[in-house]
Fold these 2 entries.
Entry 1:
Amino acid sequence: MAADRRPELVVGVDYGTLSGRAVVVRVEDGAELGSATHEYPHGVLDRQLPDGTPLGPDWALQVPADYIDVLRIAVPAALEAAAADPAQVIAIGTDFTACTMVPTTEDGTPLNEVEGNAGEPHAYVKLWKHHAAQPQADRINALAAKRGEAWLPRYGGLISSEWEFAKGLQLLEESPEIYRATAHWVEAADWIVWQLCGRYVRNACTAGYKGIFQDGTYPTRDFLAELHPDFAGFVDDLLQPVSGQLGTPAGRLTEQAAAWTGLPAGIVVAVGNVDAHVTAPAAQSTEAGQMLAIMGTSTCHIMNGGVLREVPGMCGVVDGGVTPGLWGYEAGQSGVGDIFNWFVTNAVPASYAEEAAARGLDVHELLTEKAAAQAVGEHGLLALDWHSGNRSVLVDHELSGLILGLTLSTRPEEIYRALIEATAFGTRVIVEAFEGSGVPVTEFVAAGGLLKNALLMQIYADVLDMPISVIRSEQGPALGSAIHAAVAAGAYPDIHAASAAMGGVERGAYHPDPARAAAYDVLFAEYRKLHDYFGRGTNDVMRRLRAIRREAHAGGAV
Amino acid sequence: MAADRRPELVVGVDYGTLSGRAVVVRVEDGAELGSATHEYPHGVLDRQLPDGTPLGPDWALQVPADYIDVLRIAVPAALEAAAADPAQVIAIGTDFTACTMVPTTEDGTPLNEVEGNAGEPHAYVKLWKHHAAQPQADRINALAAKRGEAWLPRYGGLISSEWEFAKGLQLLEESPEIYRATAHWVEAADWIVWQLCGRYVRNACTAGYKGIFQDGTYPTRDFLAELHPDFAGFVDDLLQPVSGQLGTPAGRLTEQAAAWTGLPAGIVVAVGNVDAHVTAPAAQSTEAGQMLAIMGTSTCHIMNGGVLREVPGMCGVVDGGVTPGLWGYEAGQSGVGDIFNWFVTNAVPASYAEEAAARGLDVHELLTEKAAAQAVGEHGLLALDWHSGNRSVLVDHELSGLILGLTLSTRPEEIYRALIEATAFGTRVIVEAFEGSGVPVTEFVAAGGLLKNALLMQIYADVLDMPISVIRSEQGPALGSAIHAAVAAGAYPDIHAASAAMGGVERGAYHPDPARAAAYDVLFAEYRKLHDYFGRGTNDVMRRLRAIRREAHAGGAV
């Protein structure tokens, strides 16, 4: 039949911080035939709820219905862009930001959609960059250290305020009613799969990296009770047993999801995954020592290693957390592109906006062009890239951004460059932490939206003093999800075979310049000194200012 | 005769950083009858000379012809605004920024006006905020400390890079040709008087505070030779003996200056003075313990004291340096309004400019309004106000600005408020240095352009936990110059009598709020900690970044 000769397709859907992207991919060779993006109508709620209810500092929420909109709008648009017949599609795979948590009823209805909850902040999705649970994370860490919990070293010695337990404890302590109304505390990665196939399948990746699931178990009831008596049942009552391995089917597309997406009911829905981890096979970077950095609003570092080592300040290490048979390491930087966007939105004067508009550039492009004209150190600035806290290696979201060296002649492009450099220094701290712990980084591979900034990539190569390889795809996570969908549908025997056929990478796309690398060594030493002074307890001024800020927002100030 | 019954007038001319202001004042009661301002056509040269010759970092030059323009344009305009008959004017007085240095020929011609010198940076006026002579200042300080020079403690233990000797040594070392061509190294305060009366009269105020003239002598030839063999004759050859006491006549208005100004030739020209010091009688703040802060682009603190004490990091103490019979102390902050202006020019987005324009506000007013809505500490920020270096108490222009506590939700008005607070903390450091040295500050009196910002004034009152008195005049330095002119012309027996009749102040215009003062105590402790960490040698990163920046600008970087 003619239909049989048309190529098989898979759909990957990547849920990012501000939008969801669907891509239609040819199973045979990974060709991306069409894609579409849908911005979340509500974006990130960090000042107030849709009804105007104000939010405290460091909050970041989302609206789950926005995720469904991506299925309804971006998936059909991608199919149309690909000129694809939906009947060709054999499977759909998804990935999500993490740790992003949805409190739901028994049937998976998000609590913010339950009548009477629209004005209750805790009923909404807590986005990965919701950083208001640091006090809870501090207590989890202190108690785990005191008790010598075996899982703690698997997370570099520190559990993040971004993760399931800290956010869950904050929920319990700040809104016991919503906590009691929560039947499931669901990773958004699993919630979207639940919406697609009608089954709640907890994926091994988020459970391992964000849910403290190690060696087959969660933290004990005893540990939880010591945190808070009412938290004792958190695992038993609110978390799902782990049932979904990466690259396997979670179920089949429901009639309702078929109606949303225009895809055939009954096709394979792959187990959920994390946007960073899912990208490794898309970048053909699954060998031990290949560190993949997915550089966007934040940066995630994903690397397989042949050995289990306790890397101080890493996000986590999970057996098979990226691909089977290797130890999957994760590290990250909470704010990268977010910092540049914050700067452009809040700190670049009208004259730059006008010049950019007149020349048909966006402001980032204009600042990058001007910054590229500077020699290393010419701006005299040094920044700490902690505007969104520090995920690795300090694991502290009470930290904050710093810029130093400002003079009356400092210009916006100089600060912009210093911010780029600060994020590169932050990456170097992570690379050195792995290497210092016996997990060598043999190759640095970059993916994500920041790839388009060649200056930034060159600065990273110079600061790291390493060549940088670059993913071929411009939509790595979505392609990675599609690759996982192909494996789940049985089109390839395993993820490695699928990666080889469908992924792609340009090796050594950027090379360090020896003179610039040497100049950056000097500046990195200064960065490291400030990093340790402010980040390791010598001067906890950032934490104290956060506390004062919280008190002021709570109405306790004058 | 009818003419005799018209009131006697004096003209005061205040030379600021960006413009000169003339005011016509009634001798009898200090009434300001008319004024006019003229902006210097060339402003501050900090990137390049008028012919495009590039300048290094930390340079700040001016063009002397701009000063003459003020005489030609602002003085006649002020007379016209006052509806004054020039025949009523009995004297003219002037004040100037300091230390601002003009290299001249034997007859006072600025070297930049000598043929062939238009492209030579060192031939121009070095403005007070020219901060490129820090290496020279460092050597002067080290040598003076080593030799135990008696004058060093009179300057708080440190000579500033802003002053005559550091700038002169930089001139010698970087441009020996221009140094050799310099017949006189003239304070602009004296240069303008020279243009008015045709005589070079060196005033005691700048000589004492900026020229290391103490107890009747300058630093020795021996000391100078040890700095640099060719510098041995700096005092003997380039500096004028001190001949002009404050409030005395320097000479009579020349025909040429009469033609420029429209004033009668032959009227009294008062000895030159510094913009800050000249203001004290205008603010009726000449008693011991009354600290007058002239708050504009920078802030100068002027205070008479009954005793001679060595205050660490003060700018200087000069016997009769402000008014006769008391020890005149000076301290200062190199950047205050300059920092706010830098911020508005370089770091406030288009949306704010648009909102301000739509509401008929300037951007400062809009930011102030938004900042006023914040509680103390609500922004979570802390800044160091060293964008233009630190004049007191660290006396180090290699220091630089810092902001800390930045988050992805930080808004421009929050940074703006943090910058205001940082300058208030800087003032408090100075007040505490005086008090800790046995020179009590009994009253804080404010003058200058920043008075118009009521939020800023209230923040200062809260941070200092002191009431703030406010000068009556909106043009304090120009009024102060007029008062000195009246004394020089013999209209009053001394400066105190003239001050009582012609000056004015509102006592206790701002009062601290106890709760806010207590909240600021906490933040000030954090400021002090960072101040000492970065400013007193624990981490000299700011100095190192400056050195790297200089090297990069000099072409030594990559």
Entry 2:
Amino acid sequence: MFDILFSHIQNKVDLSDEEKTELQSFFISKKLRKKQYLLQEGEICKYISFVSKGLLKSYFVDEKANEHINMFAFEGWWISDFNSFIHQEKAVLNIEAIEETELLMITYEDYENMMLKIPVMDRYFRILYQNSLVTKDYRLIVSNSFTAEEKYIQFAKKNPEVIQRIPHSLIASYLGLAPETVSRIRRKISLQKLDSDQ
Amino acid sequence: MFDILFSHIQNKVDLSDEEKTELQSFFISKKLRKKQYLLQEGEICKYISFVSKGLLKSYFVDEKANEHINMFAFEGWWISDFNSFIHQEKAVLNIEAIEETELLMITYEDYENMMLKIPVMDRYFRILYQNSLVTKDYRLIVSNSFTAEEKYIQFAKKNPEVIQRIPHSLIASYLGLAPETVSRIRRKISLQKLDSDQ
């Protein structure tokens, strides 16, 4: 279960065997059934979780009870309500398993202790957050500047496996689009593809 | 000029005098006049820059020549086209001084070298990026789920000094709203305020 975590870390920094043993001691494991919650809004997000198997979504529910997807987390991703985790304040996000899921979880206190005991983890998270900021910057640009069709096409190009694995209604929510808009765009694209295949 | 950088770093981590001297050697300084560019789209963003004085904006220009503000950077903030800086690819953002500005700049190569030579800087940037992710997560939630009026009011509450210091047209662009929409909301708020003051 730790293999995928170690391999994810070692893609970015070196870890000695002693550091691996130490690292393991900070985490607990958890399994979720499909549709089971990891976090509900209003709770404190006590853990940041590494997905060793499965798939989750985090989402925000607005006053009209519309669900807005914040992110999807596949194997090898970290997930939390990050503001709630870092500041130990009430969560605004819900986190729910889309598939059967296995997690490695660490509390905020242990997250900080781990960084003090294994300083190379500061470097690991610096690089991880750096990559995450690049992605979020790009998403903000897309969200504020692209048309609905441009948003969907860019997303589909960057995330071909997501398009296969996640229901279209959730992708629409992630992109801030109405499900009918995504259906219309998908029809248009497949018609264009038919045209170009002929 | 380095005092504000050191104090910003020492708010998050400890720095010895030797580390400070070493750190200085990685940076160059630059002054910008009002309206002068630090970066134009299509260039490689060679530096990440710390603002020791002044104010800048980074923005994206869409195909219809509309300007979309990505961020504002005040004294004590870092600014770059982060994707371009990290991957040394072509920038999609423009960065321009809104006021007379003084910067401390570091190249990507020196940024990586600095982290290897002064490992506590990994920790500094881990914490900095962590805070930045919290802010961006919140901005994505706002951008996808709030009405125009909610967006403006939330922004004004969180950034009272920005409202004073930055033209309203730029704030509208940052929030992805039309300038007329922001003017309408501002009129409505000040009428409500008049009502409640009576």
